[in-house]
């Protein structure tokens, strides 16, 4: 039996992680009573009793908790940070198990892992294999468009949509300073900062991330089939990340993978005009948050040898 403490378990991601872990054999969950959650001594004591802690906190609070855990020395637990505080920090392993060959092993052997952002999971899943295959240069001017359900925006956005019937559709982050850009650039294998345009729709969850490409502007003038082949080669044998055919009607909706931990990648190419659009679809609360976290927890605690958290739970 291994013990896990979720620091910040009352938020959307924390609740999702707790629900998933509660269905897993071999895991005991530790909790602090509400009156002690702001007590540093109580939090430090429960960290010392845990094999792994999950940080579901704002970035500054996550840094504070990570430092508190590290101060325990030999008694320090492993740490999975679900915030964006440590995603590009030295010494932290990026928790996208399918990103590179051997990444799942790196996560399994790490003591500190940063859970990926939801948007970057889709963007990196599309871009990194094509950069590694030489089909997209690292300095290529990438543009990324994405839409998410309002659950990805936290309590304030959830309240705005559920209580005040928020806007049907809204662009945001137009100052081009979105916190997900640094990890997308770094782990996407890019050397030029991508343009990222996120948006939110008036629905609970589900995400589409798209990357448009002018194929003749790429050095090797790839075809759509070349892009598909590179993606399929990277994700061959993966349980949760799959390359699927583009729909015949030329449409995609964001909610098809809700309540799963899967990531689907499609390539939509028009060889007549030498253009393509890469699209990733996922549940922003599944593979984009809690599902990825449980996948990483399972790897870090040695609870299974594969990378499919949902498959582990169902088993």
Question: Briefly, what is this?
Answer:
By secondary structure, this protein is an alpha/beta fold. It has helices spanning 12-22, 40-49, 59-70, 103-108, 118-132, 154-162, 181-187, 224-235, 286-300, 309-314, and strands at residues 2-7, 27-30, 52-55, 78-81, 93-94, 112-114, 143-149, 169-171, 195-201, 207-214, 241-243, 263-270, 275-282.
Order of helices and strands: EHEHEHEEHEHEHEHEEHEEEHH
Count of DSSP H/I helices: 10
How does the overall form come out from the CA principal axes? globular
- Uncertain stretches of 5 or more adjacent residues: 305-315
Distance between the termini: 17 Å
Strand tally:
13
Structural class: alpha/beta
The largest sheet has its strands arranged as: 8-9-7-10-13-12-11
Please state the average pLDDT score: 93
Biggest sheet character? 7 strands, mixed
Radius of gyration: 20 Å
The percentage of residues in β strands lies in 15-25%
Helix content: 25-40%
Explain what you see:
The chain has 315 residues and is an alpha/beta fold. It contains ten helices and 13 strands. The strands form two sheets. Strands 8-9-7-10-13-12-11 form a seven-stranded mixed sheet. Helix 4 (103-108) links the parallel strand 5 (93-94) and strand 6 (112-114). The radius of gyration is 20 Å and the shape is globular. Mean pLDDT is 93; it is low at 305-315.
